[in-house]
């Protein structure tokens, strides 16, 4: 670990074999998880093909945790499923998704 987030949350950045990833390479998340109570999320990311860090984030006004939760308190984030279940407040119905897939 090379640094912890200055805001006090548990987010951390890595250096692998003493090499820091290039920030300009663009952040690519490859693992996204939600707290079982859905109050915050955690994602693992890479920069330039190199493991670069773990970010913890909150939703709305919730405080971002200062420590990482145990793996038992996390579940994989399935944003597509959550979007399909979301309700449009103006119509009271779930939005339809329009993907390029022919799956059903």
Topology (elements, then pairings):
Layout (H helix, E strand, L loop, with lengths): L2 E2 L7 E2 L13 E9 L4 E8 L2 E9 L15 E3 L2 H7 L19
Give me a quick take on this structure:
The chain contains one helix and six strands, in the order E-E-E-E-E-E-H. The protein is mostly beta strands and 104 residues long.
Low-confidence stretches: 91-104
Helix content: under 10%
- Mean pLDDT over all positions: 78
Largest sheet: 6 strands, antiparallel
Strand content: 25-35%
State the strand order across the main sheet.
Answer: 1-2-5-4-3-6
Strand segment count: 6
Q: How would you characterize this protein structure?
A:
With 104 residues, the chain is mostly beta strands. It has a domain at 1-19 and 29-66. The chain contains one helix and six strands. It has a six-stranded antiparallel β-sheet with strand order 1-2-5-4-3-6, with no helix packed on it.
Descriptive tags:
104 residues; mainly beta; 6-stranded antiparallel β-sheet; 6 strands; disordered C terminus
